[in-house]
Amino acid sequence: MTYTLITANRNYSSWSLRPWVLMKALGLDFTDRIEPFAAAVNYEAFRAFSPTGQVPVLLDGNRTVYDSLGIALYLADRHEDIWPKDEAARAFAMCGVTEMHGGFSALRGQCPMNVGVRVQMKPHPVDLAKDVARLRELFEEGLERFSGPYLAGPDFTALDAFFAPVAYRIRTYGLDVGNGQAWVDHVLAHPAMQQWESEALAESWREESHETETGETGVITADYRSG
Ligand SMILES: N[C@@H](CCC(=O)N[C@@H](CS)C(=O)NCC(=O)O)C(=O)O
């Protein structure tokens, strides 16, 4: 029996992208089920399959595994290569994943993922500037210590998956991550990320609250969505 991974809109759903790209990049077989956002809040509808009323959710037989970090940890118990093998790289990856999961709230709040759109941003408030500086530091450290092209060495791991939505945000909002841009370019060119992006651009769903949030960050200079 294969897994079923339930995710939402490619264009907006940053938490969905994490396990999706991890499973794709590692070649794990799964049925890909999309539950698009139908409203600004989808709690009641999503409660039909998710205890938190949120996506992503992984179904493994009759077991429901939820939360992007819960899913990554569950998969790591069953499959090799979710974490780097090298002990130092593994420690770096685990700390980075948990830092992303519990932190970067200014980045998440002020730069919502909107894959197909480009924005000329207003000047960064202090909290966002701190998050961007920390991203730059983390990316540069990973690339320098483990020699790239991924954040914790030669292979795509959970660390890259957890920052994959950030790569789209960096491009959408033109955030400066210094030499960390090499990772952004590399991960955006990964076949799994290319697939996610082409599906995002083809989507015809538009969710007003996400669009409004993006518009508030500055001036929209391009929208590559064709759907
Ligand atoms: N901590 C959760 C957060 C999940 C989350 O916030 N998911 C959003 C979609 S990206 C959601 O389902 N929102 C419900 C809604 O928009 O109604 C995780 O890591 O999976």
Quick summary of this structure?
The protein is α+β, with helices and mostly antiparallel strands. Helix content is 50%, strand content 13%.
List keywords for this structure.
four-stranded mixed sheet; alpha+beta; single chain; binds glutathione; Glutathione S-transferase Yfyf (Class Pi), Chain A, domain 2; Glutaredoxin; 227 residues; globular; 50% helix
Describe it:
The strands form two sheets. Strands 2-1-3-4 form a four-stranded mixed beta sheet, covered by helices on one side. A two-stranded antiparallel ribbon has the order 5-6. The protein is built from ten helices and six strands; from the N terminus they run E-H-E-H-E-E-H-H-H-E-H-H-H-H-H-E. The chain has helices at 14-25, 43-46, 68-78, 87-102, 105-110, 126-146, 158-173, 181-188, 191-202, 208-215; strands spanning 3-7, 30-34, 57-60, 63-66, 117-121, 218-223. With 227 residues, it is of the alpha+beta class. Helices cover 50% and strands 13% of the residues. A hairpin with a 2-residue loop joins strand 3 (57-60) and strand 4 (63-66). The protein folds into two domains: 3-76, Glutaredoxin (3-Layer(aba) Sandwich); 87-198, Glutathione S-transferase Yfyf (Class Pi), Chain A, domain 2 (Up-down Bundle), CATH 1.20.1050. Bound molecules: glutathione (GSH). Glutathione is lined by residues 8, 13-16, 37, 41-43, 46, 54-56, 67-69. The site of glutathione (GSH) has 16 residues, from helix 1, helix 2 and helix 3.
